[in-house]
Amino acid sequence: MTTPRTVLITGGNRGIGRAIAEEFLAQGHRVAVTARSGEGPAGSLTVRADVTDTDQVDAAFAAVEAELGQVEVVVANAGITRDTLLMRMSDDDFDAVVDTNLGGAFRVIKRASKGMLKARFGRVILISSVVGLYGSPGQVNYAASKAGLVGIARSLTRELGARGITANVVAPGFIETDMTAELPAEQQAEYKKSIPAGRYGQASEVAKAVAWLASDDAGYISGAVLPVDGGLGMGH
Q1: What SS3 state is found at 228?
Q2: Catalytic site residue 134?
Q3: What is the pLDDT of residues 106-128, one digit of tens each?
């Protein structure tokens, strides 16, 4: 059994973030989630925060610390997409995605690191995507933001590794969520052909990988990119 920790997951009200919150709760951890709307799973503490706003991030951490104690595990999961081909992509389409997905991770990790440095313990887990290193047409902004998380994790590892803090990336592939369910059947079949496992992943499979990286067993793993993609992005 791993040591119970205080865990904060950004964007934990739906999809993969919610599944991660559920997994940590099932393992007996103290769990908080940030959400712009909606609530995290039963048993978790939901705090309102937009990760593009430093003051909101600070206030969210203060609320979690008051209720559950110092954040020991932070999962940077909040993300948005604004997909369109490069020639049609506006500056705002690019900036909004990078500011949420990459800037949001930076703000959250910076705030979390204060307590982690004092405690000489921390787990930073960044939710990237197979697209970050595999690329995807129409997703220059999203892919850039998700690739950038790898640079953050590896720089953090060099900066904070000697203080008992690890920083790792989980890169999901095609996962069954509300978003993938909306794709036309032919498109879904086409995507499945490119996945060696021959199926989409489950959000719970991503959640278990995240929980393992946060566990005592993974204390000597840092700066790694762990793909949960059925073999889609092999070699990345």
Answers
A1: strand
A2: no
A3: 999 999 999 999 999 999 999 99
